[in-house]
């Protein structure tokens, strides 16, 4: 008898990947860790690489590294069998609109605002699925979203809930909200309109489309700020982001979406701030406080609530 496998919703299209429970858990916990490394890498490069240039470099590295792996599929004309419109939209949402604004938002807004806005991702995915595709929202998922959102709020405002009343919005908040809205759209689209491409080829399309889509934005950035002098730190930083945050994170998350569905997979994104706190303390020497423990407990509890009762088959 084969080991039990997790499957997504009943409307899962034929060919969507599934896997054993241990693999689902590993990818569910691993994908946000890879995304959190993006934040740590961006902090390490803060001030040395402009935001759009950093996003462009990240995707260029990913596209070049993936090219030898996907070249046989390209030679066989695999891209011609996929809908061009869906590919373009995935590249726009997942490669351009959800990446560069995140790097730029930190220049104008606080880390607390960014964390709180980023925590809206699962809620936005659920809303998009409900409005566009009529997906029913389970009470457990709504409870989990609310619990995890409270945890992010505790961390974002350092345990001072009265700070919520003093929340000020600026252009950075608008950039971050736009990025998270684009990511939610990418997640939902990936689930409900899967393209018939091998996973690595799809990531290459997103990476290549993201890099090409940012060319005019890079030109504008360089025209306004000057051409940056990029040294060894920028090179190694872009290489790290391209491999880990580009190829690794997007590949793992796409697999989780295929296994669990967009709404439940997006719950894993609540783990990103928790991982970022731990990595920041371990690698960058950032301090931890008691309210971080409270926030992490709420986040983990919310993730558990939102992902309970996953259907099984043998």
Automatic annotation (TrEMBL):
* UniProt cross-references to SUPFAM superfamilies, sorted A to Z: Multidrug resistance efflux transporter EmrE
EamA domain mapped to chain residues: 23-155, 171-305
The way this protein sits in the membrane is described as: Multi-pass membrane protein
A Gene Ontology term for the protein's cellular component: membrane
Q: Where are the transmembrane segments?
A: 21-40, 52-71, 78-100, 106-128, 140-157, 169-189, 201-222, 234-253, 265-285, 291-312
Tell me the superkingdom of the source.
Bacteria
Where is it located? Membrane
- Keywords in alphabetical order: Membrane, Transmembrane, Transmembrane helix
Q: Known Pfam families for this protein?
A: EamA
Q: Which family does it belong to?
A: Belongs to the EamA transporter family.
- Please report the name of this protein according to its UniProt entry: DMT family transporter
């Amino acid at each position: 008898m084969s080991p039990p496998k997790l499957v997504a919703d009943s409307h899962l299209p034929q060919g969507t990947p599934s896997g054993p429970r241990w693999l689902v858990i590993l990818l569910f916990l691993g994908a946000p860790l890879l995304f959190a490394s993006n934040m740590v890498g961006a902090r390490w490069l803060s001030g040395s690489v402009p935001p759009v240039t950093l996003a462009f470099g990240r995707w260029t590295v990913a596209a070049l590294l993936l090219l030898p792996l996907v070249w046989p599929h390209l030679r066989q004309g695999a891209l011609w069998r996929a809908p061009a419109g869906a590919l373009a939209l995935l590249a726009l949402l997942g490669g351009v609109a959800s990446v560069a604004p995140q790097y730029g938002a930190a220049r104008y807004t606080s880390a607390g605002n960014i964390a709180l806005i980023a925590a809206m991702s699962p809620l936005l995915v659920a809303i998009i699925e409900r409005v566009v595709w009529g997906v029913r929202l389970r009470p457990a998922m709504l409870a989990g979203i609310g619990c995890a959102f409270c945890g992010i709020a505790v961390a974002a405002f350092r345990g001072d809930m009265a700070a919520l009343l003093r929340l000020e919005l600026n252009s950075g908040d608008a950039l971050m909200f736009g990025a998270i809205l684009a990511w939610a759209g990418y997640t939902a689209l990936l689930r409900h309109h899967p393209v018939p491409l091998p996973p690595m080829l799809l990531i290459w399309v997103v990476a290549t489309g993201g890099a090409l889509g940012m060319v005019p934005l890079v030109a504008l950035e360089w025209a306004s700020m000057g051409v940056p002098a990029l040294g060894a730190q920028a090179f190694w930083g872009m290489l790290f982001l391209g491999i880990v945050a580009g190829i690794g994170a997007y590949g793992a998350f796409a697999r989780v979406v295929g296994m669990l569905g967009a709404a439940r997979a997006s719950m894993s994104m609540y783990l990103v701030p928790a991982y970022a706190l731990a990595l920041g303390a371990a690698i960058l020497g950032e301090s931890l406080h008691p309210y971080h423990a409270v926030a992490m407990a709420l986040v983990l509890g919310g993730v558990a609530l939102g992902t309970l009762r996953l259907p099984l088959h043998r």
